């Protein structure tokens, strides 16, 4: 009986150590974050939003903090249309590397950010230009629609 219990504890400890190791990889540290920003969709939480986008706790007047226009994709893992647009956002992040930043926010984990943008339906995309107010884009669309919004609204090319 002791051998079985010891074996079970060892297996559990191994699985736990492996899970913790993978969890550490899932959230890059600050030096890895710089590499992630080049052509990747960045998972955003409330703290990152306040630091990099807008500090709504200190100000009611919108003032974007970023150095490039941005898109925030508000999604949920269970949402079919969200799963359809995720690969498009990944492609756009690579295509527009150095020109825009694309973030994604899980509305189930970041309820306060979802409420900030009144995300009553998802997917919800927040297009944030360098100057002016952000614009909301509700629902899924094809890649060409997002490209047009990026070109016309974020990069001001017409």
Automatic annotation (TrEMBL):
Which ranges of the sequence are coiled-coil? none
Pfam families membership = Thioredoxin (PF00085)
* Cross-referenced SUPFAM superfamilies: Thioredoxin-like
Where does the Thioredoxin domain lie?
20-155
- According to the record, the signal peptide region is 1-19
Q: What is this protein called?
A: Thioredoxin
Annotated GO molecular function terms are: protein-disulfide reductase activity
List GO BP terms, alphabetically. cell redox homeostasis
For this UniProt record, the keywords arranged alphabetically read as follows: Disulfide bond, Electron transport, Redox-active center, Signal, Transport
Question: Does Transport show up as a keyword for this record?
Answer: yes
Q: Does the keyword Signal apply?
A: yes
Native source organism of the sequence? Bacteroides stercorirosoris
Superkingdom, taxonomy of origin: Bacteria
The terms describing its cellular component in GO are:
cytosol
């Amino acid at each position: 009986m002791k051998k079985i219990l010891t074996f079970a504890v060892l297996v559990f400890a191994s699985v736990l150590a492996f899970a913790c190791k993978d969890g550490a990889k899932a959230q890059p540290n600050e030096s890895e974050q710089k590499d992630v920003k080049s052509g990747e969709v960045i998972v955003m939480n409330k703290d990152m939003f306040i630091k990099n986008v807008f500090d709504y706790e200190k100000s009611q007047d919108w003032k974007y903090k970023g150095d490039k226009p941005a898109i925030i994709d508000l999604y949920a893992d269970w949402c079919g249309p969200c799963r359809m647009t995720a690969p498009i956002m990944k492609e756009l992040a690579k295509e527009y590397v150095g020109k825009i930043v694309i973030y994604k926010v899980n509305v189930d984990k970041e309820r306060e950010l979802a409420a900030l943008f009144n995300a009553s339906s998802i997917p919800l995309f927040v297009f944030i230009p360098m100057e002016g107010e952000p614009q909301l884009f509700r629902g899924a669309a094809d890649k060409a629609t997002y490209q047009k919004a990026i070109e016309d609204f974020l990069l001001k090319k017409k």
